[in-house]
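Below is how a single chain appears once it has passed through the pipeline. First comes the sequence as given, then the structure the pipeline wrote out for it. We keep one example in the README because the format questions we get most often are answered faster by looking than by reading.
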Amino acid sequence: MLSACERRTTRSQPKSARPLSQKSRCTLQRDYLGRGGPLPADRRVARRSDSPSYPRSSRLAFGSGSGLQIGRYAVVAALACACLWTVPAAAEPAVSSTDTAGSYEATLNRASGEVSVEYAAAPGVRKPARAGTGLSAKDVVRTGKNGRAEIALVNYGLIELQPNATMVINSLEKADASFTLRLGALLSKLRSLGGRRLRVRSSRAVASVRGTEFAVEAKGDGAAAYFAVFDEGVVDVEAEGHPAVTLESNLETAVRPGEAPAAPHAIDHFKFAQQRMRILRQRARYFGDQWHRKYRIPKTRGAKP
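Resulting structure:
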């Protein structure tokens, strides 16, 4: 407790020279460091802000008193975040040696707007799509003007049909899986297929996919078909009677009737799909962590994906 004389002396001092309480020191550190600016020289607690290897949340360094305690909490928080960031990558299910045979499990993961399915067991009959419905070879999925359909290849990735699209599931056998895009566009985010290939056909060309972020658009008879790879992966595009071209990250090509695929160039036609791909990428990451619980798929360790 300050005496009356001490209180008068303190009030007569400039604010920057007055002693700070513990609460005031913490408040100043939070305000100044939150804005990225330095504390006044006579009030700051030492910081380790010079090291670029420290996350921003851990840049309160070790001092005395409350500064030391805050610094410890910041370092603990940074280590916890680092653990959270690294665990999902290590926990991604790998492809086991027994996974080279059999079929992919396809599910209609989500349907919005006008979406219908023509099942192989009832040809010519279009039924409204329902999320969670299983799909099989020879099924046909259609979307209307405002429709989108998300198809999951369980434990491998997602395929999203855009509005006004028609896609046929030719085969789900892992050795020779293929789809035919009759009309419209699709986006896909697939993880590594373990050396296998998945083929997407249009009326103009065939895309051979090994696990990647890619898009295909078919505009019907007499029009070009377009193929693209986004941030990662490799896709081989081949037109009948012509040599294949290879697409790598952020490249696209067009295939016109009777012509070879155009030379790969930077994405232009598929700029409209880049935002949708970002959304699909996030959803694929989420399901990659959730599938082993939702579908009771065991995680296999030790095998190369």
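The longest helix spans residues 66-91.

See the next section for the split statistics.
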